[in-house]
Design goal:
Chain A has 115 residues and is mainly beta. Chain A is built from no helices and ten strands. In chain A, the strands form two sheets. In chain A, strands 2, 4, 5, 8, 9 and 10 form a six-stranded mixed β-sheet that branches. In chain A, strand 4 and strand 5 form a beta hairpin. Chain B has 112 residues and is mostly beta strands. In chain B, strand 6 and strand 7 form a beta hairpin. Chain B is globular, with a radius of gyration of 13 Å. The chains are: A mainly beta (115), B mainly beta (112).
Chain lengths: 115, 112
């Protein structure tokens, strides 16, 4: 079956512009996670969704970051007024339900470059 | 207390050798310890995981060793192959919380 897909795979933008990153989770997975991975670094947790709700937004780095999920499926991560420090790979993962015991299936990521 | 410390940062092993990556934690509430493998340009993928009720789990050439008293766990890759070259992340979670606490990753290179 299809895995987690993300689009675009690469995004180059100018400082100050807004960007939208999209994640299509595995069908039937109720939990969805967003992570950020800077070059050669580990995974920084941003936000998770259970269904369409995001109970914990504390991982978002600033109020320029927002995310939503519609229909319990597709999720969009929006970064407003991008800064150079936002350059990173943004990874999305989904799991069958919200529990750390469930395997997280990752997409290939969106590489964001802010010039 | 929420951190997971992973070492080494990078590792070079000859083909056929044993690769060992270590992780340490402080929070005794952690009770799930997965390892993820990430190839360049791909997202991480679950490799193997362990719960603290066992001291070792083996899947093929990959083994997790778990030392509850020392609050350490490690990944051993036996007969390492060039195809094992990847970045490996350990993680830990407190009692089925939604959130995995990730180690910083180890870049493993297997030399042919």
């Amino acid at each position: 079956g299809a895995g987690v897909s993300q689009s675009p795979s690469n995004k180059v933008t100018e400082k100050g512009k807004d960007v939208e990153l999209r994640c299509d989770p595995i069908s039937g997975h109720t939990a969805l996670y967003w992570y950020r991975q800077s070059l050669g670094q580990g995974l920084e947790f941003l936000i998770y969704f259970q269904g369409n709700s995001a109970p914990d937004k504390s991982g978002l780095p600033s109020d320029r970051f927002s995310a939503e999920r519609t229909g319990g499926s597709v999720s969009t991560l929006t970064i407003q007024r991008t800064q150079q420090e936002d350059s990173a790979v943004y990874l999305c993962a989904s799991s069958l339900e919200i529990s750390s015991y469930n395997e997280q299936f990752f997409g290939p990521g969106t590489r964001l470059t802010v010039l | 207390q929420q951190q997971v410390k992973q070492s080494p940062q990078s590792l070079i092993v000859q083909k056929g050798g044993i690769s060992i990556i270590n992780c340490a934690y402080e929070n005794t509430a952690f009770d799930y310890f997965p390892w993820y493998q990430q190839f360049p340009g791909k997202g991480p993928a679950l490799l193997i995981a362990i719960r603290p009720d066992v001291s070792e789990k083996k899947e093929g050439r990959f083994t997790i060793s778990f030392n509850k008293s020392a609050k350490q766990f490690s990944l051993h890759i036996m007969d390492s192959q060039p195809g094992d070259s990847a970045t490996y992340f350990c993680a830990a979670s407190p009692d089925s919380n939604y959130q995995l606490i990730w180690g910083a990753g180890t870049k493993l290179i297997i030399k042919p």
